[in-house]
Amino acid sequence: MIVNLHGGDIYSFARRTGRSYDEIIDFSASINPLGPPESVLRAVRDNLGMVMHYPDPEMVEFREAVSQWRGVPFESVVPGNGSTEIIYLIMSFLHPRRVLIPAPDFSEYEKAARLGGATLFGHINLYEDMDAYINRRTLESMPFYDMVFVSNPNNPTGRFFTPHEMEKMINVVKNTGTYLVVDEAFVDFTGEESLSKFVLENPNLIVLSSLTKFYAIPGLRIGFGVMHPNLAKMVFRYKEPWSVNTLAMAAGKAAIGDDKFREKTLEFMKSEKEFFEDSLEKRGITFYPSSTNYYLLRHESAEQLADFLETKGILVRRCGNFEELGPEYIRVSVKSRGDNLRLFEEIDSYERHSGSRNT
Prior knowledge:
Elements: H1 10-17, E1 25-26, H2 38-46, H3 60-70, E2 77-80, H4 83-94, E3 98-103, H5 108-115, E4 120-125, H6 136-141, E5 147-151, H7 163-174, E6 179-183, E7 205-210, E8 223-227, H8 229-236, H9 246-256, H10 259-282, E9 286-287, E10 294-298, H11 302-311, E11 314-315, E12 317-318, E13 329-333, H12 337-354
Parallel strand pairs: 1-11, 3-4, 3-5, 5-6, 6-7
Antiparallel strand pairs: 2-8, 7-8, 9-10, 10-13, 12-13
Helix pairs in contact: 2-9, 3-9, 4-5
């Protein structure tokens, strides 16, 4: 049996409960509630006839689009079957033995590192210090490690560090053998710029990007890494051929060219996040300030609350398997106003029936 440790698993939930997919409201996956832009759907339809051919092994059109969008050389762009493929790809190539990872953070970092041969792990404790990425203790310890992973914004706290703040970490690895891998899977929701522009001057910097969250296409799997051209050339040697399919590349190219959709999403998120935070505050629910489209909540009976919500067809992300977090934490994404209202209505219902108090 395959054990899923991530959000977004509507499939096993549907099988377990007998619900149809349309009956499930999924707050566990942090996907843009506006859905894929029409430009992306049109690109998929227009390229259906190409499925009879192999995908372009060099992925030229998609890489050119990313190159222009991020302002980096074509040779610096390594597309992937989602950014997760790039995580495993660089581990299989670089084989870091000592790895520093934030806690809590995306579980695939450590999993990929172990498969790549890592034997010693350190943790940047964000639970104790939300600014731990850039505190003195972290910066001084970085040269000891072969690789440092950080997600920015952090998953699941939503904490975002500006490029100016992140330069502190970049400057540490600039003249050492340590690789700094910055996962920007949710950066587009912040409206801030990517760190990709720093890769040419910093050969040890790798920046990961995902198009599946902001453009609501996780089923197509498309992402990319940006790194120094010399490193990208070597990483490509380890990449499986045709790992990114034709429809995904067409969708990705259309997505990053859709400026109007980006503006629409940021305006929508600003409004819904204000509503979301106001709703949490009114109920006395503890949450971490978030720069992106999800919130980490603390509730004294989070597991029971998640169980109750599932009986109503609502999925949230249980966070007990995140390093440094316990069963009292859940993560919820920001969705449409109707879905958000439904979530808070069911939370109110749970509180009335359980008499629970939040912490």
